[in-house]
Fold each of these.
Amino acid sequence: MNPREKNIARVKALLEKNVENGATEAEAMSALAKASELMKQWYISENDIKDPYLGEKCILKQFPLIQSGYNYRLFYNDLTRLFDCEYYYNSKIIAFFGFEEDVELCGYFYNLIIKTCLKEKDNFLESPEGIVAKKYHHGRTLAASFIKGFMLRIATKMEDMYKDKVSNLPQQTGLMVVKKEQKVKEQFEILDFKIFMQSSKELVFEEIGFNAGLDKGDEFHLTQGINSYQMENTKQLH
């Protein structure tokens, strides 16, 4: 922690010395004066000492579960971790819990990724490579293998993005992100959902479909998805 960060922490501690917390009026006034002095000396603004998530509440929003008979769950954990959310799902819906914009991003990417995957799966099965592969393997097995490869690549990309996000954050901002993640987790636990994890049989995958899925997943650019999300929401404001 550098000197400025130490003094930001001191200011926060001084501002906690108030009458509501048991300090006398004289002690509170003295602490306020000292905090004001430190803020001027170290150019500390109100934003530096304010918890940006203090007054913001988490929301729970449900999205229809995309039904197709295939397993997409491979990327759920990495999606919600990337956008600081929690989630649960059943046979009809998937629900994301967190701050509003993060929840909307999870819902947007959930739909975008799965719909893109299904489209690419159909393209693969109708391609010359897919047509030949179907002569030796069941079409559904090839499709499931393609989806598994695609989702594995997406999950890996999201994991890398999360690591980059955390490692590139300034120390103070990083602490705020940790606070944000903790708040989401704490509020989610308060809801006390009785969630039962269902075990599923591991899909047997054919190498041809799996590798094709990996390749198409590699072509999916998450940053373009974020830009598209921002553009769509900007258009809605006009």
Note: The chain is about 65% helix and 5% strand.
Amino acid sequence: MNKIRYFLAIAVLSLLTIACSKQNAVEDVELSIAKLNQFNSTFENFYKDGVIEGINLKKGEKKDANSEYNQLKKLAEEYYELINRINSNIKEDKENVNKGKKSNGYEEKYKKAIESKKDEIEKATDLFITNLNILNNYSEKDKIIEEEIQDFAEETTKETEASNE
């Protein structure tokens, strides 16, 4: 539970920092794909021996910030920060339109970028979810909640379907 709070605190701080940055939907999509691919390749490299070091610490063992598990966790957090930035940019653009301001077209550019990279996104996302499921099955006390994985899969599917409309 504390790890979830820690992650949420980092995400909120990151969102505040990122909110001031320039909005570029195409770049955001490319960065999110790159982060997924980085996570997947790092996971593959770490899991070659069938063990993710640092995921299940025994009593008395110290947490290592550079453990394989923590490195994967950091990459996943960075990916989720990118997704949160995309969602915040879309929300901000819609709020501006509702206030009578001109749209910056972020959502439309995002949908076009998603459509142009659809196959690459689906492949990277499927592997990401598979890897998260492996971590979930491997972990004993620091389980990744299966409902969150399912919600992520459903949200990604909805975004892909929405871009097709």
Note: Residues 2-164 form one domain.
Amino acid sequence: MSRPNPLAASETLAALTAYKGGFFNIGLFSAVINLLMLAPALYMLQVYDRVLASGNQMTLLMLTLMILGLFGLMGALEWVRSQVVIHLGTQMDMRLNQRVYDAAFEAQLKGSPQAAGQALNDLTALRQFATGNALFAFFDAPWFPVYLLVIFLFHPWLGLLALAGAVLLVALAWINQHICQAPLAQASQLSIITSQQATANLRNADAIEAMGMLGALRERWFIGHQGFLAQQNLASEKTATISAWSKGVRMALQSLVLGLGAWLAVQGQITPGMMIAGSILMGRVLSPSTS
């Protein structure tokens, strides 16, 4: 059984540490963006509780201009944050790619073609993480308690509903990860093996044709490819099932928070603006659990 290479681990850690300033900037931009995410809920709160009650059109105009300005600022920050992570991912790749290539070449010489292919795939996965939505979700997740706290301030029952919904969606996400981990790992391994087989066969196409081995090698590749498709389809079917349940639960929670908010508003325990704002914030609370 192969053991992790301490040198490789330290090099990866050093590469991540070298860009801690970039990660700090991403976290800072994420903090401001998430604070601005409260703006739509506050806007609806003011519109329903102040503008509709007073009928003041100037107040509505000023609130609308303010929210449009905040949306423009949020869009600009989102663009800047995206540019930062794109450049960060590229720089990390440039720092590690030659070392990973050398390690993959050494693994190939030692008779470990799977490890060689996996090393390059891992580098691609690291770059995709640094430039994809997963990194944004990582920095946005800590703001979940803030949105939840605001909902609790509206009314404890609304907060409990939001908390229960988030826990349920997190549980579904964990189940999806647990049941799909094994087939996805097998599919990835089979994909590497069959890809290497096909590459080797094509490289030696003349010799294979001369020896009449095309049929046997094609059958060998086809069996491996069938195994890959079977594992990939199994994981996809399981993911589709959990995703369907998660979507249904999320839509139900969005309706339930409006229904509960309307009931509390009828009882006079919250205002109509809190009902609408609570529904908007519910979407923000559930976002990390579905990312």
Note: The chain has two domains: 1-131, 143-291.
Amino acid sequence: MTMKLESLSNEVLLDLFELLDVVNLLRAFSGLNTRFNSLLFGDFQSYRVDLRSMSKEDFYIFYSTYLPSILNRIIYLRLSDDEDTPCQCSHFQSTGFTLNRFTHLRSLIFNSFSTDVNINQEFFTGLRHLHNLKRLKFVDCRLYHLHLEDFRDVIDQIWNLPKLSRLYWHISFKCSRRFSLPKYTSRSLRNLTIVNYNYDSYDFACLLEKTPYLRKFSMLSDDYGDQDIRISRKFLPSSHTSSIRELTLFSIRSQALMTSLFQFLPHVTHLKIEIFSIDLDGHQWKKMIVNYLPQLKDFQFKIDLDLCRSIDDSTNEDKIDQYLSTYLTPFWIEHHQWFVRCHWYQSNGVLGICVYSLPYVFSYFPRFDQDFNFHTKSTCSPDMNHPYNSVRDIGYEPWMFHNEALSHIQ
């Protein structure tokens, strides 16, 4: 095996190293001979360390045997504290390898940090030294033992990182689902995602002021409040507050919030939005797009709502036809070539609908119960095929595979 591998060029071997996780890579090739050691600890400059699901035994072998030799060549680090790797971050702290020592990191992910009291704001203080960091993600971190105020300095450190271009923020704190405004202005951030964030008019305006070069903003909010982001004279869209071109909004339930965001971000060209319980038709969408989003080119949406009271199949279909007719105007079909599909069903005397743009771009495809008298129609011609290849989670029953209404989905 060694002889066959040795026949490969250094370039091919380095490409091969890219495909292997760090523990297996070092176990397999470290110490085989001088050439492999030279490649591993001299030429190979892009170690990617993903500690998810790493056993405790492998964890300590990695930290004690390999980490000191590759520390300055790790460009990707993912720390995990989920059910498969409980207290991993505490073990990380106990090794003495603090974040500030990973000076060549380009990508850092904190995965499912929980209520381990050993994980506090001090754990993250090394972020200020990661001057090469370009991507930072906090994925489903539940720091319920910390207050948001305890994390303000960490947020300031993040906004002061000179090369950080992408930030994914999904952290829950004790008694708070807000986001602390940074003290510094980031001139490097281009892509920002914030999950479960309650908005305030002043906060959102200031957030944009602190990220003047932001190009893509994504938000997931389950706020039911009918709050408004006031468009005061002080915070009217400007070159500093309207650089955003791509806007993604999930779980939107407030029309006032949605409309205010559109007014605030008039240069958006790509919009992806998931809406619940807001009654919008094609005419209302056209009005908002023309008035607030005149540069919009790519429009992807999904709406779930109770349209009206269910009468009977014939009356319900007439209601659906009336609703879909608002998406059959020249604005939709000729000017933009935007097509939609509408599923409808009856439940508890209500006519419910799920209407979405084509192709379908959301990760979850809704499950429809056969008992709800499910039907579907589209504004596009039957010979047009639109992919559903973004779906990662689908609820299904055997009847769906034999239902004519779903025969277009493959």
Note: The first strand starts at residue 47 and ends at 50.
